[in-house]
């Protein structure tokens, strides 16, 4: 059957939706339709993509208003009797058509204290870890950096607090480092101040859109909020730390 | 490659290209939470019909001061200001109320439903200014763990109420073991509240989430895993326990008023 795709066309923030009709078939995803339109009707249509398998995180866009990977959005899941809207992510500066400039994310990543392992456990410079100690961290390693979580986060999307809040992706990244059994770095102060974890009001939109199914809010952000609470606010934890001579933390 | 910075445009309140009925979920949350708050406030100020036989409404438990046989220290104290309305529930309800108010799950739900912050995911917000939980007053949401600890103590009182709900006064004036529908209602209420409380995110942190290596402290392993298991369905525990606690109060109230008759099973 034929379907209409209403695609955002324009550059540097200005533009308009343009309608394209194309033939669809069983098994097609939104990215297939976009490629079809690019090949037959709009050769200058800018779209970022790479693996077509939901693993590179390149083809992030908003399909019918929802942040999604175009390559993982089946047409059979959409109502094709109405035009399917495809627009670029809203939380990042627009470049052209469906492409946005996501370089802010990479700059943010550089601000986070890197992995700092303890001294090696063995003389050959290697470490020993138990699987149960890295189970939690492995969930976060599934992240493909599609930045859909950043796009849907209202702190970035609606309030544009990019200078004060690192966004869910980098709270997950920090969690992976903070919970790592070998890591010795202290990041809780930065989490509270420079990374603005307090801006997150736990609406779980990031979890909802994650194509890898990472429980961003429950398993990464809230545990970090609790650790920040230990470190910055909780007088009982501070008192116990003073009495036992141990600094609060893992 | 050159970069040109383009200012991001802000969407208007409620603006979205979403096609689904995104407003249903926040509307239902608004309706259910509002109804619960109205009912709980009304029930708390009643100061009547909160006991029926061996049953005590969870809104009034523990009854520190009060007129029923469940009261720990007898009737309303003399020092209670005359201008201040008294009800045993008013001494109790702030704790579970604030426990739920500061709960991570409810926060996410009511920020959407009551503050439209955001109204729903990828839907434009009505306000430009946003402070999140970083500044006063919402920074105080961080005290959730203290209300959790007090709520755990309250669970003990509610469990004791279930135990007392097994003992009925017989016509001869003695006390005998028995099971009524109300006993089961009170017990189910405790099960729901326990599932909600033990799966709380702060509980999960206290039970081991703060550690990086469980292999070094195996004592934390099982409690953390159990809490994590409950936490995976924390939203469902939150709603079912909320509705159950209201129903338990309603059951005791209607039995006390003689509208419902408690059926003895044993």
Question: How is this structure best described in words?
Answer:
The complex is a heterodimer of chains A (about 250) and B (about 270). Chain A contains ten helices and seven strands. Chain A has helices at about 30-40, 105-110, 130-140, 150, 155, 170-180, 190, 205-210, 215-235, 235-245, and strands spanning about 1-10, 15-25, 60-65, 65-70, 85, 95, 100. Chain A has a five-stranded mixed β-sheet with strand order 2-1-5-3-4. With about 250 residues, chain A is of the alpha+beta class. The N and C termini of chain A lie far apart (about 60 Å). In chain A, helix 3 (about 130-140) packs antiparallel against helix 6 and helix 6 (about 170-180) packs across helix 9. Chain A is elongated, with a radius of gyration of 21 Å. Chain B is about 50% helix and about 5% strand. In chain B, strands 1-2 form a two-stranded antiparallel ribbon. Chain B has a two-stranded antiparallel sheet with strand order 3-4. Chain B has helices at about 25-45, 90, 95-100, 105-115, 145-165, 180-200, 200-210, 220-230, 235-255; strands at about 50, 55, 165-170, 175. Chain B is mainly alpha-helical and about 270 residues long. Chain B is globular, with a radius of gyration of 23 Å. Chain B has one domain (about 25-255).
């Amino acid at each position: 059957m034929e379907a209409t795709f209403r695609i955002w066309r324009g550059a540097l923030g200005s533009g308009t939706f343009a309608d394209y009709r194309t033939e669809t078939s069983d098994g097609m995803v939104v990215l297939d339709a976009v490629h079809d339109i690019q090949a037959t009707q709009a050769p200058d249509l800018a779209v970022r993509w790479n693996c077509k398998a939901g693993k590179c995180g390149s083809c992030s866009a908003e399909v019918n208003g929802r942040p999604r990977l175009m390559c993982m959005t089946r047409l059979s899941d959409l109502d094709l009797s109405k035009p399917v809207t495809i627009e670029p992510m809203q939380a990042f500066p627009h470049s052209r058509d469906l492409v946005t400039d996501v370089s802010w994310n990479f700059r943010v990543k550089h601000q986070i204290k890197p992995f700092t392992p303890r001294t090696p456990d063995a003389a050959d410079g290697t470490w020993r870890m138990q699987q149960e100690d890295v189970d939690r961290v492995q969930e976060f390693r599934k992240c493909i950096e599609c930045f859909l979580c950043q796009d849907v986060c209202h702190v970035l999307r609606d309030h544009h607090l990019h200078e004060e809040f690192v966004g869910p992706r980098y709270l997950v990244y920090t969690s992976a480092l903070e919970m790592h059994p070998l890591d010795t770095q202290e990041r809780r102060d930065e989490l509270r101040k420079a990374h603005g974890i307090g801006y997150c009001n736990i609406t779980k939109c990031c979890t909802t859109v994650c194509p890898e199914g990472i429980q961003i809010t429950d398993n990464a952000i809230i545990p970090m909020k609790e650790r920040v609470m230990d470190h910055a606010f909780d007088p009982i934890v501070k008192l116990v730390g003073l009495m036992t001579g141990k600094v609060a933390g893992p | 490659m050159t970069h040109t910075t383009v200012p991001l445009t802000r969407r208007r309140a409620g603006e979205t290209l979403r096609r689904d009925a995104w407003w249903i979920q926040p509307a239902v949350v608004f309706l259910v939470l509002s109804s619960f708050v109205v009912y709980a406030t009304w029930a708390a100020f009643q100061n009547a019909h909160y006991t029926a036989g061996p049953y005590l409404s969870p809104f009034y438990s523990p009854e520190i001061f009060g007129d029923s046989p469940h009261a720990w220290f007898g009737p309303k104290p003399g020092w209670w200001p005359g201008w201040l309305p008294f009800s045993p529930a008013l001494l109790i309800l702030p704790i579970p109320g604030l426990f739920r108010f500061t709960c991570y799950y409810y926060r996410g739900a009511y920020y959407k439903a009551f503050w439209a912050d955001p109204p729903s995911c990828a839907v434009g917000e009505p306000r430009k200014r946003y402070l999140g939980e970083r500044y006063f007053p919402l920074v105080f949401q961080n005290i959730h763990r203290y209300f959790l600890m007090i709520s755990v103590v309250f669970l003990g009182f509610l469990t004791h109420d279930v135990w007392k709900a097994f003992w009925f006064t017989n016509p001869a004036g003695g006390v005998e073991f028995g099971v009524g529908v109300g006993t089961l209602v009170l017990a189910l209420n405790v099960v729901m509240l326990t599932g909600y409380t033990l799966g709380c995110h702060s509980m999960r942190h206290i039970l081991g989430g703060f550690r990086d290596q469980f292999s070094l402290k195996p004592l934390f392993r099982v409690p953390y895993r159990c809490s994590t298991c409950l936490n995976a369905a924390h939203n469902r525990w939150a709603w079912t326990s909320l509705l159950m606690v209201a129903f338990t109060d309603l059951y005791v109230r209607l039995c006390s008023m003689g509208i419902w008759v408690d059926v003895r099973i044993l």
